Amino acid sequence: DTGVSQNPRHKITKRGQNVTFRCDPISEHNRLYWYRQTLGQGPEFLTYFQNEAQLEKSRLLSDRFSAERPKGSFSTLEIQRTEQGDSAMYLCASSAGGGTDWGNEQFFGPGTRLTVL
Amino acid sequence: GQQVMQIPQYQHVQEGEDFTTYCNSSTTLSNIQWYKQRPGGHPVFLIQLVKSGEVKKQKRLTFQFGEAKKNSSLHITATQTTDVGTYFCAGLRAGSYQLTFGKGTKLSVIP
């Protein structure tokens, strides 16, 4: 399967614990995005990587959230000291592109569903 | 910050009827994208519109981008049960990679 993959698919954790999610984008895609989606809402942008560089981050994003893409391939999203409000589907997407091309088709992964008890 | 609003939130149609969802941005966009999300699935890209006044067609789907690049619409002709899902518009501002999604329009098709 050459699509975007995410692990784990489901995560249940207790409030206050740290969690880490992984995203493997489509191999030739240099752009990677993280989103959060709650029921009845559209995906909410969290952060964007171009290769290994984190170029954009939502201003609304708590400092408990951090993301990395160390070698410009897979990415991890870590949430520290989880809260019940962090319960959501965390989606990763990747796209090709470069130069002055700001937008392009994004391919989404299946998501990681986080439940914080 | 940038807001993208979509109406209606829900739409129930009889199979064979037409369907339209509307998207409005609080700021001028450099481009707009449309995605479809099936129940239990992830968003799947449908199309991207870049030019002012642009109209694109994909079989029974017609997409429009407003002249001011602040609004867009998706029209489906003669809906089928396979059209069921939530349709999202997502706008991109100039100079940003942040795609801002609307809340979506959930389409139900009654056979």
Keywords for this entry:
heterodimer; A: 117 residues; mainly beta; four-stranded antiparallel sheet; 11 strands; B: 111 residues; five-stranded antiparallel sheet
Question: Overview of this structure, please?
Answer:
The complex is a heterodimer of chains A (117) and B (111). In chain A, 0% of the residues lie in helices and 48% in strands. Chain A is an all-beta fold. Chain B is mainly beta. Chain B is built from no helices and eleven strands. Chain B has strands spanning 4-7, 10-14, 19-25, 31-37, 44-49, 55-58, 61-65, 71-76, 85-92, 99-101, 105-110. In chain B, strand 6 and strand 7 (61-65) form a beta hairpin. Chain B is globular. Chains A and B meet through strand 5 and strand 10 of A and strand 5, strand 9 and strand 10 of B.
> What's the N-to-C terminus distance of chain B?
41 Å
- Amino-to-carboxy terminus distance of chain A: 33 Å
Outline of chain A = globular
Topology order of chain A in helix (H) and strand (E) letters = EEEEEEEEEEE
Radius of gyration of chain B: 13 Å
Label the structural class of chain B: mainly beta
How would a textbook summarize the main sheet of chain B? Answer: 6 strands, mixed
Largest sheet of chain A: 7 strands, mixed
Overall pLDDT of chain B: 96
* Tally of contiguous helical segments of chain A: 0
Radius of gyration of chain A: 14 Å
Number of E-type strands of chain A: 11
Runs of chain A in which pLDDT lies below 50 for 5 or more consecutive residues are: none
Strand content of chain B: over 45%
What oligomerization state is this entry in? heterodimer
Q: Strands, helices and their partners?
A:
The complex is a heterodimer of chains A (117) and B (111).
Chain A: E1 5-7, E2 10-13, E3 19-24, E4 31-37, E5 44-50, E6 53-57, E7 65-68, E8 75-79, E9 88-95, E10 107-108, E11 112-116
Parallel strand pairs in A: 2-11
Antiparallel strand pairs in A: 1-3, 3-8, 4-5, 4-9, 5-6, 7-8, 9-10, 9-11
Chain B: E1 4-7, E2 10-14, E3 19-25, E4 31-37, E5 44-49, E6 55-58, E7 61-65, E8 71-76, E9 85-92, E10 99-101, E11 105-110
Parallel strand pairs in B: 2-11
Antiparallel strand pairs in B: 1-3, 3-8, 4-5, 4-9, 6-7, 7-8, 9-10, 9-11
